[in-house]
Amino acid sequence: MSDKxxxxxxxGGADMDREKLRREVEEKEDARxxxxxxxxxxxxxxxxxxYLLSIIGEVEGHENLPGTSKATKYDHVLPKLAQLxxxxxxxxxxxxxxxxxxxxxxxxxxxEMIASLSMPTVSLVLGGSHSIGVPLAVAADYSFIVPxxxxxxxxxxxxxxxxxxxxxxxxxxxxxxxxxxxVSGHAKIAHDQLKRLMHSTEMLTRDxxxxxxxxxxxxxGLIDEVGGIREALKKLxxxxxxxxx
Length: 245
Hints:
Layout (H helix, E strand, L loop, with lengths): L2 H34 L1 E4 L8 E11 L10 E3 H13 L5 E11 L1 H12 L5 E9 L3 H6 L3 E4 L4 E4 L12 H21 L4 H8 L11 E4 L1 H5 L5 E2 L2 H16 L1
Parallel strand pairs: 2-3, 2-4, 4-5, 5-6, 6-9
Antiparallel strand pairs: 1-2, 7-8
């Protein structure tokens, strides 16, 4: 075989290897997106490496939810956030939220991790971000909500056997204060105003709490701005570029 043919064969083999590697990467991305709602966004004009994290359904705690339930597993999310913080190539995090709430400890753990990341972070509420979804939405550096998005603020609820003693009530209060302190510390809403919304009896006829839709969440100081994916990515790109400078 001539040198030219050998070189052509070698080049063809390298191309096949690159194509195989590309397909493997795409398959892994598709599998990760399908199972965890996570993927990397790097096709933008500025070639910024943005990681997408979806928090959907119910935030699962120490007990597994039924297989038929949409859930965000905190034991998957926490290690991934730690890995992102340790990855020098990841420049920003976009968090998409459409959650009914879930386990308080698990939700606060994820929120604290997001809040402590050194990279720029932006959250976008789609559909709803209720209950423990509120701290998750405000944990980012900047937050958006779509015009029809909703946020429900209500007192802490517990399932299972509850002992009717004063200490039980104090424990409920302690958990509630953790949520109030985190949200008021990461959003523009005051602690007392958030507590008032949480215990409101004016909106929900059979429950306590308040539902805020789109612009209402911004007016109350929970969310920074009304917008969609276009605005969220534009803001995150600007934050990433600003950090580079």
